[in-house]
Write a structure and sequence with these properties.
Length: about 150
């Protein structure tokens, strides 16, 4: 458990340099931001303590919800909290847990955050050519509007 906590905390120490500016710009534009994450209890605590947490208007963590991606219900709960329809949503994820497929099935515009993906590593997600890739976080701004 301590190793999982340390690993998750370490992730937040190495954020892409565009993450905070991108989130700040979205907030400045009045865009609502939701977070859906599959995690364990100790990871949920780390997420809530992270510098990213204040940017989210709705947070749906699998540990707290009792369901996880790709279950459509966790997406629906987040959309309900934000009072948005699927077609109003831009869903961004690395593509693990079949999250992008579910977002698209629900009617969201699904984009793959490929800046997380490293060639030659043993990671669960790979580039998915059927989804538009985002090479840098700031590219998200091209897809959102009030």
């Amino acid at each position: 458990m301590n190793k999982r906590i340390a690993t998750k905390e370490d992730c937040f120490l190495h954020l892409h340099s565009e993450i905070i500016p991108m989130l700040s710009e979205l907030k400045k534009q009045g865009i609502l931001i939701g977070l859906i994450s599959n995690c364990f209890s100790e990871e949920a605590d780390v997420i809530r303590r992270s510098e990213l947490f204040p940017y989210f208007d709705a947070v749906y963590l699998s540990y707290e919800q009792g369901i996880q991606k790709p279950d459509e219900e966790i997406y629906r709960r987040c959309m309900q909290k934000l009072s948005v329809k699927p077609e109003e949503c831009v869903y961004v994820g690395d593509g693990g847990s079949h999250e992008l497929e579910t977002a698209r099935k629900l009617g969201m515009h699904a984009l793959q955050a490929v800046w997380y993906l490293k060639v030659g590593t043993a990671q669960p997600a790979m580039r998915k050519p059927e989804f538009e890739p985002l090479e840098h976080p700031m590219e998200i701004l091209r897809y959102v509007h009030k």
